[in-house]
Amino acid sequence: MNFHLVSIFPHYFESPLQSGLMGKAVENGLVSLDYVDVRRFAGGVHKSVDDRPFGGGPGMLLKLDPMVKALDSVERKGRILMLSPRGKPFNQAQAKALSQEEDVTLICGRYEGIDERLLDLYPIELVSVGDFVLNGGEIGAVCMVEAIARLLPGFMGHEDSGEEESFSAGLLEYPHYTRPEDYDGLAVPEVLRSGDHGKIADWRRECSLSATLSDRPDLLPNARLTVEDIDFLRAQPRTRLGRNLYIALCHYPVVNKFGEKVAVSVTNLDLHDMARVARSYGLGGFYATTPIEDQKALADRLLSHWKEGAGSQANPDRAEAFSKVKVFDDIESAVLDIEAQTGQCPRLAATSARLDRRKEAEPALTCSEVQKWLANSPVLLIFGTGHGLAEEVLSKADGIMRPVRYLDDYNHLSVRSAVAIIVDRLIADEY
Ligand SMILES: C[S@@+](CC[C@H](N)C(=O)[O-])C[C@H]1O[C@@H](n2cnc3c(N)ncnc32)[C@H](O)[C@@H]1O
User: Fold this and answer.
1) Which of 104, 122, 155, 171 sits in a 20 to 30 Å window from 281, CA-based?
2) If you take atom 26 of ligand 1, which residue's CA is the nearest one?
3) CA nearest ligand 1 atom 9, residue
């Protein structure tokens, strides 16, 4: 396989790509490394490769002409990738796909990057090695070359090494140990010394599963899991963001379709469905708020039917869901209740189907901002009935969440649907 590395610092690659297995792969012809020195293609006495950006701003840019000439000097470019923090994140699946290619060209930027018109001239794919900014693309290119080349048949000692590693099966890898068996009292796990290959395989699978659950739960949705894997994962301890999340359904003050402040009736369906979300996601609690006495009485009757009355006999699961529900006059009382339970004043995140377009408005809250709050303190997520929460509730919140489907023109969801979607996004563990 041939890598063409286009850079203004080709010597940068020498040591890392000549060492260890990579050095051997180059020696025995499995991998060829073609260093394309952009400076060789620069004109003028100074062989300058950079210039100032149009429009001003700090830093310099790599000029187009030397880059074009450098690229044109590569006869068989194959797929052309350019290292850029703007690119798609590089991963094991891409390394696998690229390892099937005969030629791959990697363009390394420097300074503030490269004149954008290079992308108009060649079918270049932008690729990033992470959400951080490096001085240049060379070190990212080294990562990519190594990740791709080691998947070539014959690169590693034995062919299955690549299959068992982290990410290959959508999970992190299990831990490894070598001699001595005991290092100052730190023993190698018994099972690895048992010689029982079935047990060793089970232990390794379980270690992979629990490491992924605790360190990279975002990998689990795409991992191929058996029922046994799922049963194992269910029994593992995990951080539950849900315990800090409380939801409130406000029936007053909300607005009607004319923007007037009104009270809306309590509905059976909202209470059932929100209680079930609260229980399913392990939330701290669900507050239905209304100051209207007959509405509170209605909600209380409903609760007692399902929690203690005939409903609880007929459907104990529903009783469990309703144990999460409390009926209060207003949001302030819900806040005091959370404070009494947790010893902390909850942060208030309001929800709305509309963007706040006032000039002085803060940018809407993102899920990750609310998740950060949840890691340290209780959060009360407030939903409105009718046509949404009245200004006096919105203005007391610490922020308003971005509407669900904010890029689309129709986003008229029922409050029950919005609750389910937003809670799921906030908990975001996809279990
Ligand atoms: C200082 S960076 C330029 C950053 C650029 N102005 C920006 O903010 O996106 C110089 C070069 O380093 C490389 N680079 C920096 N960070 C990278 C990353 N996370 N992944 C891939 N390449 C990166 C790119 O080739 C980039 O053109």
Assistant:
1) 171
2) 109
3) 85
